[in-house]
Design brief:
With 124 residues, the protein is an all-beta fold. 0% of the residues lie in helices and 48% in strands. It is built from no helices and 11 strands. The strands form 2 sheets. Strands 2, 4, 5, 6, 9, 10 and 11 form a 7-stranded mixed beta sheet that branches. A 4-stranded antiparallel beta sheet has the order 1-3-8-7, with no helix packed on it. The N and C termini lie far apart (40 Å).
Length: 124
Amino acid sequence: YLQLVESGGGSVQAGGSLTLSCAASGYIISSCMGWFRQPPGKEREGVAAISFDGAHTFYTDSVQGRFTIARNNANNTVFLQMNGLKPEDTGTYYCAFGLFSWCRAPASEDFRVWGQGTQVTVST
């Protein structure tokens, strides 16, 4: 069955950048893909989503203009470029495989396969 493996997390200072990658063990070309995060002591929240063809992207308001989601269907990989990082971006970031080819603002119920997560820590 499909597995997702995230990488690229780490510790950075505020204002820094990181690029997260999500490698899928199978084809992702037919599905919306998303990134979620879980801040310490809080519930998981949607960060970004990208439609099956990459034509449509969605971002939560707090990351709009700072984060960019992209995908490479040929390599079954999804990326999250994060610029201008803030301490409130700290959390475990998860990649997710969607139920549908289309996307909307990322909501957990629209995704069925999850990675194990990668930690992002932003210090002041």
